Amino acid sequence: MTAPAPVIIVSNLIKQFGRFAALRGVTAEFSGGKIFAILGDNGAGKTTLLRTLAGLSQPSSGEVKIFGAKKFCDVCQQVGYMAHPSLLYDEMSGMENLAYFARLYGITDIEYCAEVIRAVGLDPGLVRPVGQYSQGMRQRMSLARALLNDPKLLLLDEPFSNVDLHSATEMVRLLAGTRDQGKTIFIVTHQASLLEGAADEFVWMEYGKIVERTRDLKRLEAAR
Amino acid sequence: MTAPAPVIIVSNLIKQFGRFAALRGVTAEFSGGKIFAILGDNGAGKTTLLRTLAGLSQPSSGEVKIFGAKKFCDVCQQVGYMAHPSLLYDEMSGMENLAYFARLYGITDIEYCAEVIRAVGLDPGLVRPVGQYSQGMRQRMSLARALLNDPKLLLLDEPFSNVDLHSATEMVRLLAGTRDQGKTIFIVTHQASLLEGAADEFVWMEYGKIVERTRDLKRLEAAR
Amino acid sequence: MKKAFPILAVLTAILLSYALYLALVWAPTEQTMGNVQRIFYYHVPSAWTAFILFFINFVASLVYLIKRRPAADIIALVTAEVGVVFCTVVLITGPIWARPVWGIWWTWDMRLTSTLVLWLIYVSYLFLRRFSSGGQTPLLAAALAVLGALCVPFVYFSIWFFRTQHPQPVMGGGGSIDPRMLHVLLINWLAFSCFAFLVCWARYRLEKLQRDVDEAHAMESLLNPRGSVR
Amino acid sequence: MTPPSGITRVTLLKDLRLEWRSKDAINSMLFFSLLVVVVFSFSFDPSAEESRQIAGGLVWVAFLFAAVVALNQTWAREIRNQVLDAYRVSPAPANALFMAKTLGNFIFVSVLEALMTPLFIVFYRLRALGPSWPLLLVAALGTWALVVNGTFFAAMSLRTRSREIMLPLLLFPISIPALLAMVQATTAILNGEGARFWIVLLATYDLVFTTVCLLLFETILNAE
Amino acid sequence: MTPPSGITRVTLLKDLRLEWRSKDAINSMLFFSLLVVVVFSFSFDPSAEESRQIAGGLVWVAFLFAAVVALNQTWAREIRNQVLDAYRVSPAPANALFMAKTLGNFIFVSVLEALMTPLFIVFYRLRALGPSWPLLLVAALGTWALVVNGTFFAAMSLRTRSREIMLPLLLFPISIPALLAMVQATTAILNGEGARFWIVLLATYDLVFTTVCLLLFETILNAE
Ligand code: HEM
Ligand SMILES: Nc1ncnc2c1ncn2[C@@H]1O[C@H](COP(=O)(O)OP(=O)(O)OP(=O)(O)O)[C@@H](O)[C@H]1O
Ligand SMILES: Nc1ncnc2c1ncn2[C@@H]1O[C@H](COP(=O)(O)OP(=O)(O)OP(=O)(O)O)[C@@H](O)[C@H]1O
Ligand SMILES: [Mg+2]
Ligand SMILES: [Mg+2]
């Protein structure tokens, strides 16, 4: 592998909600092919940062460049986003959901959708609607949706909260595998210990700023 | 302290949702003055068990006895319940919330409510509505509501999910203190490690049954 | 019990065909309205049957509220369903009759209106049963059934002033009806009641079976060490 | 113990205070009722003699639709963070809550009506031929009929799918007698005829349905 | 890339399939429209000559109320698990979604009207004096006017608190010209007079508002 080039450049990002600033000047560069774990206390601005990266939230000031593009819609084909809610239709089966979202990305190949489902360890033949899946299954399906367009950049918001330890470790393994294929992955989570072996860098946020970036979780936890 | 007497007796509790049995015969006795951590995979039936104990969900068959009473309403003065949602009005300040709920328990003393808020480490003078609290503050306020009637039995559902590590450890400390005053506490959680020092017993649920009760978390985690 | 069902079914079929013969052939033709009047033998017995079924629904719902017996809930469900069907028959035969006789499909007459309101109430009951989630459907439905039944007398009082175009009750009213017509009417009513009872019974057994199957599934998942097969 | 009436009072006060504080509901309902009147006058040329003669019906249909929109929001605040569960685990009686909600809605809808009526009078140039004070009585009784059933059915539809559409489905059929009585009484009074019968009918309806709703509400509230 | 029209098609088909599968919405709307007709006929004695003369207005007001209730549900499915965010991060154009929703609502409301009209005709014994086929044109144009604005404003009110009440607040004022045109055209046609002016007015209204909504929708969708 060649040395990874910066995939995301964030400069002086500020996001205000009324009088309150959720992001108070975030400046950072993130290089490709790595897993970044974004940690921080409640209200630190992690979700806001991720939504801004995904173009779902317009920053009050500052700039985000993804793959060199300033407008998110220019690169949306290459980004996958997974939020805390599932972003899936509860009434449709997993396969129907993926088939629909695939069309939004211009993919019409049904067999390909089935493959993605298999990749996250689910059975594409399941006819049950997603609403009746267990929490763990739903999170996987949600991940499958984010992986659908074979994105080079993955943004995941609390993928493990409310998921049992077993399912969580399995998901981490899956993500590490994806990273090894050269993808860049951002994971916001409160359960840093799950990512101890997998993440390449831990990013600590506090009061709307990135205050520390380190490879050593132990040291970070001791400091905070 | 004298030897604790059984506070909760659950016999052959079954709860069905249509064709699906969420609780499949839970039989157990829990003695007073302890912290019980209820663990288990997603969908194991932990929340259902807790809701049944709190009289919010009627069992399909089987019986719950709390402090010897079969009907929950006879002992509701002595039970505190905290769910995953906050059970608070987002539009009122913490103090107003507590003042209202206190009235439901026949408490009219405002100063007492302020004390409870102080006990969970918040400032009773805060005028902001609860909806604008950070997640961690809201969880604390929710705990304050559960503690309001000075209950002998506390039922807590995932009090730490989405709460940062720092707030969580503080909450555990607070609960341990409450236990030392002779209260019985049930905590459903996926973050067992937080309770390692504090819980007196770990209860492992699987497929709607209690399959193991132990004092040794390490052994439990190794086995599962 | 189970053996009685086919016997009753056969008897009902015979009775129904006999009643059909009486209504279409044997009964005298009405002088002013002509043959269209024969719809009378379906219209009126359906109405009476529907009323009886709704009454049973009310009683069963009360019983359920007090005793919480699943059987009462099933009875309430099936009587409401079958009652709505019979009430629909009244609401369809009425206008069919009204068109040639009165020259209009519908008028805001007291009898017509009260039937319509009754129908609306019990359809909303069925809607509630269908839409409510979770295991507490019977309770909600029973509560609604009681409120709905209480509403009926008010419906009658609130529309009594509507000028009425509809014939007065046969029973206990003026009684100006040909005895042969009355005979046919009563036989038809008997046949309809038997039929309604039969349908209710079949539906009861079906529903009971359905619930038993659910129960068995739940029991199976109780015994299965890995939980239900999900 | 706070007596039930005390709990009704605090709950009602809390609701009123919250309404007042946000003024959201009030403002939007005001505007809504204005709009309804305007839409009606566009649809039914108010200067036409015919429209004036059916003004009694117009007014009540407008009130009914406004009330349905208002009633749908009744329980919204209580289920937002599952606050209703907090009420249910407390020793406060269910009927106190029901009375508080009904009274709250009664006040709310009455205010609406008080604001819409002058508009109707102006737009449709209504003039009563006889004494018009009995209209007040009719309005009060009729509003109570709508509101007591509406509150009850709104609580019922909490337990159903597609909550919003359920309320009119349940409320309309049962309210038909009350609606008829209101319309007839209004028309009679406007035309200078006696409305004694209708008023007695309405009063009986109110009495019967209030009693039964009170008897049944606990069951409804505790159904999951 | 799937072209916009293709995405409109799949989205529309998905919505129709889901509606069809549950049939909930259809059935309940059917019953609701029946109830509206019945409530109207109780309030406005249909046998009275006066009510028959304003039947054009009655029909449209009934349609308007039914449509508002229906439109309020339009986006419900899309915001349930924040599926809308999944749409927004995809490269699919916003207008494709808007057209799909508008068409879906148009079909839905048209079906409603087709079902309510015979009821009105029977209950109010309506009979057109002139040729009645232009009524179809008026209905189609009028429905489109309601639906295109309704869909737009429903999307807009997603971002506001008290969502349900917002829709009529926004929709009614803007729809007043359309409503007026519809009512006048209907009355004119029923009375055998020409309605050319009103039809041209409606068509222009439709054209203008459809264009403007399409131009603005992307902004609305991407506003947080
Ligand atoms: C248009 C819709 C109509 C409806 C909803 C309707 C409804 C009913 C109902 C509910 C009853 C049973 C009432 C009772 O026994 O208390 C009934 C009875 C009867 N109907 Fe109708 N009806 C309709 C039209 C007609 C017409 C057009 C005629 C004939 C002119 C008619 C003739 C009768 C007669 C003769 C009875 C038996 C009288 C009695 O025993 O009550 N109905 N109808
Ligand atoms: N729409 C909004 N309006 C007002 N304030 C907001 C909004 N969204 C977020 N905030 C505020 O911005 C701050 C950062 O929120 P954010 O959701 O990014 O935190 P977070 O780091 O994800 O926290 P958590 O760990 O609890 O998810 C919080 O204080 C929150 O109250
Ligand atoms: N209202 C309901 N209707 C149908 N099934 C339900 C309902 N509530 C819970 N269940 C099912 O019962 C099972 C147990 O649910 P419960 O919420 O008790 O699990 P849990 O142990 O709390 O899981 P988690 O860790 O995800 O919170 C799950 O499979 C769930 O799907
Ligand atoms: Mg967050
Ligand atoms: Mg749970």
Task: Give an overview in words.
The complex is a heteropentamer, with 2 copies of chain A (224 residues), 1 copy of chain C (230 residues) and 2 copies of chain D (224 residues). Chain A is α/β, with parallel strands linked by helices. Helix content of chain A is 31%, strand content 28%. In chain A, helix 3 crosses helix 4. Chain C is an all-alpha fold and 230 residues long. In chain C, helix 2 packs antiparallel against helix 3. In chain C, 37% of the residues are buried. Chain D has one domain. Helices cover 83% and strands 0% of the residues of chain D. The mean pLDDT of chain D is 82. The interface between C and E is medium-sized, with 13 and 14 residues. One adenosine-5'-triphosphate sits at the interface of chains A and B.
Task: Provide the fold topology.
The complex is a heteropentamer, with 2 copies of chain A (224 residues), 1 copy of chain C (230 residues) and 2 copies of chain D (224 residues).
Chain A: E1 6-17, E2 20-31, E3 35-40, H1 46-53, E4 61-66, H2 72-75, E5 79-82, H3 94-104, H4 110-119, H5 135-147, E6 153-157, H6 165-180, E7 184-188, E8 201-206, E9 209-214, H7 217-223
Parallel strand pairs in A: 3-7, 3-8, 5-6, 6-7
Antiparallel strand pairs in A: 1-2, 1-4, 8-9
Helix pairs in contact in A: 3-4
Chain C: H1 4-26, H2 40-67, H3 70-102, H4 110-131, H5 137-158, H6 179-223
Helix pairs in contact in C: 1-6, 2-3, 2-5, 2-6, 3-4, 3-6, 4-5
Chain D: H1 4-22, H2 24-43, H3 49-53, H4 55-73, H5 76-80, H6 83-89, H7 94-124, H8 134-158, H9 163-190, H10 196-222
Helix pairs in contact in D: 1-7, 2-4, 2-7, 4-7, 4-8, 4-9, 7-8, 7-10, 8-9, 8-10, 9-10
Bound molecules: protoporphyrin IX containing FE, adenosine-5'-triphosphate (2 copies) and magnesium ion (2 copies).
